[in-house]
Amino acid sequence: MAQLRHALRAYIVRAPSVAVAVSRLNDLITQAMPKEMATAIVAELDPGLRRITLVNAGHLPPMVIDADGARLVEAERGLALGIRSAESYRATTITLAVGGAFVLYSDGLIERRTRTIDEGLDLLLEEGAACAGLQSADEICKRLVDRIDRRADTDDDLTVVAVRFVGDGGDVDVASA
């Protein structure tokens, strides 16, 4: 994974867009590491405009939390990295309201032997909606982990990252758990 992160960083600096960077990373994996596969969401933030441009390479959809509650981001879901395809990755751009949060998470947060992915996503949305009034990205991460994560029936890794747009001036609050 460290090799993929470093390669992606290099591609992002040189590529004209996030989608091109992800496509180049996929080319590298399919050519140099043909037995490897990974999912990823690559997001580029524009804090001044509260805009996020993202590319989803086979990962679960990110979540947006705002005054209206929580929803999954309707983004085109490309193939996982490491799968050779003629299709290119496509970017989706969303704009959040002041106070809105963008949440990324690993499947270890919602996936269990005792529930389906859909049940896990429903639980994520339910708990995400309850986070609408929280004032920090750290509070959002902690609540999602505390309320959803039940480690007894899984040994999977767990990651949650929240980015909250604090004001019109481009202030951003970021936290992870």
Summarize the structure.
This protein is α+β, with helices and mostly antiparallel strands and 177 residues long.
Task: Write a concise keyword list for the protein shown above.
single chain, 177 residues, alpha+beta, Phosphatase 2c, domain 1, 5-stranded antiparallel β-sheet, 4-stranded mixed β-sheet, 25% strand
If you had to describe this structure to a student in words, what would you say it looks like?
This protein has about 180 residues and is an alpha+beta fold. It has a single domain (about 1-175), classed as Phosphatase 2c, domain 1 (4-Layer Sandwich). The chain is built from 5 helices and 9 strands; from the N terminus they run ααβββββββαααββ. It has helices at about 1-15, 20-30, 105-110, 115-130, 135-150, and strands at about 40-45, 50-55, 65, 70, 75-80, 90-95, 100-105, 160-165, 170-175. Strand 8 and strand 9 (about 170-175) form a beta hairpin.
